[in-house]
Amino acid sequence: MTPTPPAKPAAKTRESARQTLVAETDPRSPAAEAYRTLRTNIRFAGLDTPCRTILVTSASPGEGKTTTVANFGIAAAQADARVCLVDSDMRRPSLHRLFGVPNTRGLTTALVEGGTFGTVAQPTHIKNLSVVTSGPLPPNPAELVGSHRMQECLDSGTKEFDLRLFDSPPVVSVSDALALSALCEGVILVVRSGAIPQPVIRRTVDHIEAVKGRILGIVLNSVDMKRDGM
Ligand SMILES: Nc1ncnc2c1ncn2[C@@H]1O[C@H](COP(=O)(O)OP(=O)(O)OP(=O)(O)O)[C@@H](O)[C@H]1O
Ligand SMILES: [Mg+2]
Predict the structure, then answer these.
(1) Distance 115 CA to ligand 1 centre (A)
(2) Residues 143-156 pLDDT 10s
(3) In sequence order, which ranges of 26-106 are alpha helices (DSSP H)?
(4) What ligand 1 atom has the least distance to the C-alpha of 63?
(5) What is the pLDDT at residue 120?
(6) Domains recognised in the chain with CATH numbers
(7) Is any atom of ligand 1 closer than 6 Å to the C-beta of 130?
(8) Quick check: CB of 65 below 6 Å from ligand 1?
């Protein structure tokens, strides 16, 4: 395994994290309001069987998965839910940088040592919000996330947390997100507005449904209100 170095955010990184975490830093902005709406919609989407484990994924890289996980998580924590963000993107993990916490122990540590989410979750500077970073990067991410251990790990966090949100790599490049779709109770698909051809989005939905992933909804990210006539 290749340990990712502990986060030592430079001033520029801290500023860019501040700009990304709008639900915390600019709660009156339209973007923050949109994340609160997402929180409400997701709550109603699972009225009969509330989703306590939700995977956030996308068809291709850079569509806004990590940004959505972080801000949705903050919005849920602000509503007094005990939230844990889990970095299950074992290819390009980034939640540790966003929240300025070390990544020496994390999800892979729990999977390899047979630990629970509780043993590797770190508090963040936001009340009610914890983060499980990726941990040292493994040579076999797809195998790890689809393992029986992963299922046990998922089952272990229900007492400590009301909601666990999983960040992931994109569906088109690797199979990790599909394995996680099958394990989580719900899936949110992030689509960067205007960036992805519709057939690719359709195929991604089909792939998720083929493994019995339950798609709760699609987040249309980076919408240009003027360009898109909204
Ligand atoms: N709605 C938005 N408005 C402005 N910038 C955004 C928005 N959503 C994401 N970004 C920016 O786009 C970049 C990619 O976002 P993010 O890291 O959340 O995507 P990702 O899907 O997690 O990427 P990856 O596939 O590499 O993990 C980041 O620099 C982020 O700050
Ligand atoms: Mg990401």
Answers:
(1) 31
(2) 999 899 999 998 88
(3) 30-45, 65-78, 95-99
(4) 21
(5) 96
(6) 11-221 (3.40.50.300)
(7) no
(8) yes
